[in-house]
Specification:
heterodimer, A: about 300 residues, mainly alpha, about 75% helix, about 5% strand, globular, B: about 350 residues, ABC transporter involved in vitamin B12 uptake, BtuC, 17 helices, disordered C terminus, transmembrane (chain B), Branched-chain amino acid ABC transporter permease (chain B), LivM-like (chain B)
Chain lengths: ~300, ~350
């Protein structure tokens, strides 16, 4: 069976949507990984996570568009900026609340969500801004793929592999994994929990920064852009099991496919609605899938 | 039990509140009072479940459904809000059941519950934006002006009428709060919030109790949204739905005090006066500043005063009178480490 015949079997648009879903899944998986890392190690949910991404996107916009810095120089700077933001968030907000009920920590990051959104509104205004970089479209057979999406997918995979290597091959990474398994005993083993928490927060921030560099290629930035992928990231993490890296990875691609295929039939917003409906159904039929690593 | 003195204080206070618009008629101040009363009712509705550790960030969704369903039925189907409001409340209640049942049945609590409800309010916002052909999307939506009977359309130009309606609704919220506070359900829910397994072992039907309070809270929040829409005659997805509105409810309830009946009302007074004074002080430059101040205050309150202003004040007044319940003690420890 030739390539053309193979393509005839599947609806060409359907296949295009499936592949686009996989590409979208890469960035979602990156976001889910950052959130899961923070939860797994510090036992805190940053509900302002998508807003950190938004600040990173503004960072990219101003460096590239306003100061004329090359994209590839601006990207590491943005990752660094958001990593510092993540560490600051931990130091200023989470650390004083570590002994408080978990719900208080979560709500405090809700306050930070407000702060970041309104900071962006006050400082940058509510205009939609974009990098002005138009990447070419790749044609493959009769299908078209955005180069930006492909690049994001590859970069997201590289980022995830880098985190995996860091977690398994370095002493600090090992300490992070150890502390997520037993919070009490690690202090006795001579691991400075405060330092590990700070490093983990910076790492979570760096992942948000990387996601920002990739998302800014595809989407306009505005103060409320976090709302368009924040909720979906939370659903992914809950479905995969908070703190469960593999679960989050798989759930990212499932959700990305639903959004992408849903978007095929109507608007992107309906893709999100479909994803939420799917999530509710999954809670009914497979609650055990949700319960991985529950405390 | 409510003492005779407290009952008398409530009576005098209420009489003064009812008499107010007949003595004092400044329309701007009445407008602020109406807003405070409507939002107080919404915040009280949130705190009905929030006080039992059921932290929902989905209430922005319920409020949005209350406002938009009522307005859409009026504009497109010509259905009076007298029917539209109950329908919108039923819709919000149904959604609360659909999301709440699996959450409670399969023990989705804490972080998980917050994230699921957070997604719920995000999705309602997306739906309102996506159906922009009907709802006007993010540009907002205006119910048609009634040509005939104003009462049938629940549209009044008179601020005094609205003030009295809002006062009645607010009072209804406070009465329901006290009704729950004195019911068996309160003890069941407190037991659940402290230890779900122990409560279940003691014979509490955990899922049913949680569903009941969630349903009540969602119905009341939808009513608040509908009343807000009827009063303002203009709604946007951002002012009545979404994550920001949900967080605003949490913020006001926590600032005022989550565990006392008038706490959310105090929270509403503080937040609305804050927003209004910023608006008057800075004019259009204030866009965004009120939320910036909210956010910083929310973080500071959670770190330093988690029982809220009214809650902490009342605690100080009657320090010896009652032993705080365990989940409140936890919160107090944060406020005063080492006690």
């Amino acid at each position: 069976m030739g390539m053309q015949a193979f393509l005839d079997v599947f609806d060409i648009y359907l296949l295009e949507a499936v592949i686009n879903g996989i590409l979208l899944g890469g960035v979602l998986a990156l976001l889910a990984l950052g959130l899961n890392l923070i939860f797994g190690v510090i036992d805190v949910t940053w509900i302002c996570y998508a807003e950190l991404v938004m600040i990173g996107m503004y960072g990219m916009y101003f460096m590239v568009q306003y100061y004329g810095i090359s994209y590839f120089v601006a990207a590491p700077l943005t990752i660094l900026l958001v990593a510092v933001l993540g560490a600051a968030l931990h130091y200023l907000v989470i650390a004083p609340l570590l002994t408080a009920p978990p719900i208080n920590q979560l709500l405090a990051t809700g306050g930070v969500l407000f702060v970041l959104q309104s900071f962006a509104t006050v400082t940058f205004g509510i205009d939609f801004r974009n990098l002005g970089i138009r990447l070419p479209v790749l044609a493959f057979g009769d299908m078209n793929f955005s180069y930006a999406r492909l690049l994001s997918f590859v970069a997201a995979l590289v980022g995830m592999v880098a985190v995996y290597l860091f977690m398994t091959r370095t002493f600090t990474g090992t300490a992070i994994r150890a502390i997520s398994q037993d919070r009490q005993i690690m202090a006795l083993m001579g691991v400075d929990a405060k330092r590990i928490y700070l490093i983990t927060s910076a790492l979570g921030g760096a992942l948000a920064g990387l996601a920002a560099c990739l998302l800014v290629l595809q989407y306009d930035v505005h103060p409320f852009v976090g709302l368009s992928f924040g909720p979906i990231t939370f659903l992914i993490c809950v479905l995969g099991g908070l703190g469960n890296f593999i679960g989050g990875f798989i759930a990212s691609f499932v959700f990305a496919e639903i959004i992408s295929l849903g978007g095929l039939f109507s608007d992107l917003e309906w893709g999100y609605v479909l994803a939420f409906a799917f999530f509710i159904v999954m809670m009914f039929i497979r609650p055990a899938g949700l319960l991985a690593r529950r405390r | 039990m409510m003492g005779r003195g407290r009952l008398a204080a409530w009576g005098v206070g209420l009489a003064a509140l009812v008499a107010l618009p007949f003595v004092y008629r400044d329309p701007y101040h009445l407008h602020i009072l109406v807003l405070i009363l409507i939002w107080s009712f919404a915040y009280t509705s949130w705190s009905m479940m929030g006080r039992f550790g059921l932290v929902s960030l989905g209430h922005g969704g319920f409020m949005g459904i209350g406002a938009y369903v009522t307005a859409l039925l009026w504009n497109h189907a010509g259905l009076s809000p007298w029917f539209g409001i109950p329908i919108s409340m039923a819709a919000a209640g149904a959604l609360a059941m659909i999301v709440g049942y699996p959450c409670f049945r399969f023990r989705i609590t804490g972080h998980y519950f917050v994230l699921v409800t957070l997604a719920l309010s995000g999705i309602v916002l997306q739906v309102i934006t996506a159906t922009r052909d009907y709802t006007g999307g993010s540009l907002g939506y205006t119910p048609n002006r009634a040509s005939g009977n104003k009462l049938l359309a629940l549209q009044f130009d008179d601020k005094t009428t609205w003030y009295l309606i809002a006062l009645a609704i607010w009072l209804f919220g406070i009465v329901v709060w006290h009704w729950v506070d004195r019911s068996m359900a309160r003890y069941a829910l407190e037991a659940i919030s402290e230890d779900e397994d122990a409560a279940a072992a003691a014979g509490v039907n955990v899922t049913a109790e949680k569903l009941k309070i969630t349903l009540l809270s969602a119905l009341m929040t939808a009513l608040a949204g509908a009343i807000y829409c009827q009063y303002q005659m203009f709604i946007t997805p951002d002012t009545v739905s979404g994550i920001a509105v949900s967080l605003q409810m949490v913020f006001a309830a926590i600032v005022g005090g989550l565990f006392v009946s008038l706490g959310p009302t105090v929270g509403a007074i503080i937040t609305i006066l804050l927003a209004e004074s910023l608006r008057i002080g800075f004019g259009t430059k204030a866009v965004g500043w009120d939320n910036l101040v909210y956010g910083v205050l929310l973080v500071l309150f959670i770190i330093f005063l988690p029982k809220g202003i009214l809650g902490s004040l009342l605690d100080r007044l009657k320090l010896q009178r009652k032993v705080p319940r365990a989940h409140e003690q936890k919160a107090v420890q944060v406020a005063r480490p080492g006690t």
